[in-house]
Amino acid sequence: MGIEIFYFLIFPGLLFSGIMGGFISWVDRKITARVQFRQGPPLLQPLYDFVKLFAKETIIPSNGSITTFILAPLFALFGATISAVFILLPVLGVETGFTAGIIVILYLLNIPAISYIIGALASGNPLAAVGASREMKLILSYELPLILVLISVIIKSGMAIRFSDIVTYQLTHGAFIGSLSGIMGFVTILMCIQAKMGLVPFDMAEGEGEICDGIIIEFSGSILAIFKLTKYIMFLALPAFVSGLFFGGLSLSGINILWSILKVFAVVLLITLIRNTNPRVRIEQAMKFFWLWMNLIAVICVILAVLGI
User: Fold this and answer.
1) Which of 25, 81, 258, 267 is most deeply packed, by most CB within 10 A?
2) Residues paired with 162 in a beta bridge
């Protein structure tokens, strides 16, 4: 029990993922600033943001469900943390019984988004309800192509379901990104995680200029800080998940540390460039994009994986 608690709270769970995710968030903001010809924030800005929010007063809406409203960020943080544990342990090659299949990881990665929806609906704010509605539609849009990509990865890895087995398979047979189906799957999952993290062009659930932050409009103080910490953790967990699925995982030994950093940085760089070179789309445009084009690419990806291409 002690080692499981260590994995969850210290490494690679809450503490490690929160710190590294905050650093990746800083990298994202720094790249964004450079693209816009600005200086960008200092290195510790994510920490300052979290501490500043955590120290502020938490205002609870009077016409909502107080218990659900407060618990929603905690469920989001739990989902992100346990996802990071199940992703990072096999990706880093840590041998332990604390492992899971990619289907379990897929379910766990949905907990933060579902928690956002529950918290928004519990606030009783109509703008938050609009944001929650958009988030639900977005989940229904990107989940199918994401599942299809995971099916193609399972096929390419010899029908392996456990994430650790998929990573190990690539160490002996080569990274999946080196194949045509791997490239197509990588492009598809990159757009899916863009939507899962609520980044431009798929940030319509918050829509600052339209619905005043939407799903998080009523959150403040410490519970908003918890949501921010959740996003930090997802900023590490999702790129690491992609690295494990297509780049053969990460390593903390010798020169491989630099190579591992470059893998994660490459995914973060692409995510950042996508959100800085595209305008926000409407929810119906996002649904059409995923249901038509991403599903089409994902289906082709599955077919190519079956053919061994």
Assistant:
1) 81
2) 101
The residue type found at 237 is A
Q: What length is written for the chain?
A: 309
| Angle formed by the axes of helices 221-246 and 180-196, nearest 10° | 180
What pLDDT was estimated at residue 97?
A: 58
Nearest CA-CA partner of 299 in 151, 157, 146, 148: 148
> 187 near 177, Cβ under 8 Å?
no
Half-sphere exposure in the Cβ direction for 176 (13 Å, CA): 32
Contact between residue 81 and residue 17 where contact means Cβ atoms under 8 Å apart: yes
Do residues 54 and 89 lie in contact, with contact meaning Cβ atoms separated by under 8 Å? no
Residue 242 CA to residue 301 CA, distance in Å, equals: 16
State how far the Cα of 210 lies from the Cα of 227, in Å rounded to an integer. 21
pTM of the model: 0.94
- What gap in Å lies between CA 140 and CA 150, rounded to an integer? 16
Residues of the chain with pLDDT under 70: 1, 95-100, 209-210
Distance CA 231, CA 275 (A): 16
Token code pair at residue 196: 């899962």
Q: What is the pLDDT of residue 99?
A: 64
In tens, the pLDDT along 183-241 reads 999 999 999 999 999 898 998 888 776 677 778 888 999 999 999 999 999 999 999 99
Gap between the Cα atoms of 195 and 109, Å rounded: 12
Spatial distance between the Cα atoms of 286 and 282, rounded to a whole number of angstroms: 6
What three-state secondary structure class fits 101?
strand
For 53, counting Cβ atoms within 10 Å of its Cβ (0-12 exposed, 13-18 middle, 19+ buried), the class is: buried
